[in-house]
Amino acid sequence: MNGALPAAPAPGAALTAEDPARIEQQALRLGVWASLAIAVAGVVAYALSASDALLLDGLYAGVMALTSGVAARIGTVVQRPPERGWPYGFGGQEALFVLFRSLLLIGMLSVAVVAALRELAAWLAGGALPEAVDLGPVGVYTLITVVLCLLLAWRQRQAWLACGRRSELLLLESRAAALDAAITAGAGGTLLLGPLLAGTPLAALVPLSDPLLVILIALVVMVEPVQHFLEALRQTAGAACDPELISASRARVQQQLAEAGGATPVTLLDFSLQKLGRTTFVVAWLDPAQPVDGAWMDGLRQQLEGALAELLGPLRCELLLTRQAPFAADAR
């Protein structure tokens, strides 16, 4: 049986993780400064134009700057190997970061919606119209911010690809930058086109375009953090991965077990996948049906990790020898 198992990896193989880590850190640091510049531009544009929609856009970029700085720190920590104090590694910190970043964005957007609704409610109650927006700086701000956001989204995505599509942090930052570009373009374009509604049946909405735009932007943007929040919540709560991914991984494991067992294939009683941050935890319950030793277990673990690495990315594999399946058949 032992002859079918691979040799241990070469001592220098682990060094290949240094380049992705460096690329990730450089991209995240760039994201901090780019998002900070966009945030300052948004606050300045708000001061000059009195547009709450531009202020919301700037605050969103400010949150991106803050979270990019935290993400850079977490990106360094999660690269560390497991240790006695953290036996399952540091991937949980990445999931917790996504969880709290999403909560921060949801809270900020909710406050913006409430403030805009209060303005509309005051107007409906006979109060004064919201302060008119000065469109002078809107066009310049919109153009500069959209270009910066698109460049940042492109740069973060290239870094994500260079890291082997494994960094949840870079993917999150790339999507956030692209979304910010779409928000800015929509907000700026709507404000600039508002005067064209004069003399139309929608002319009455022109003075209310800013609070209405804030509500629309907030509701559109909130979809992304809510989705990330739910996914991070599933990960931190210990939910299993997608059934399709489990099925594909199980098929690869069964193929490797058939080769490892030789004349007596190893029986796979059950199989589970859990993802936490960028790391996937694999547990296989096996019945070898014959005596095995520690060297055989280590070799089989390496073989399974190699077979699943392309599909799952960074992973940890644990093998449990038993003759009783851990879960009922109808619960799988």
Q: What's the architecture of the largest domain in CATH terms?
A: Up-down Bundle
Number of DSSP helical runs: 8
Helix content: 55-70%
- The poorly predicted ranges are 1-17
Kindly report the spatial arrangement of strands forming the biggest sheet: 1-2-3
Main sheet: strands, sense, barrel: 3 strands, mixed
Average pLDDT figure: 83
**Structural class based on helices, strands and sheet pairing:** mainly alpha
Gyration radius, rounded? 26 Å
Total number of distinct structural domains: 2
**In sequence order, what are the helices and strands, one letter per element?**
HHHHHHHEEHE
Query: What distance lies between the first and last C-alpha atoms, to the nearest angstrom?
Result: 30 Å
Structural shape: elongated
CATH topology category name of the largest domain: Alpha-lytic protease prodomain-like
Percentage of residues in strands: 5-15%
- Quaternary organisation: single chain
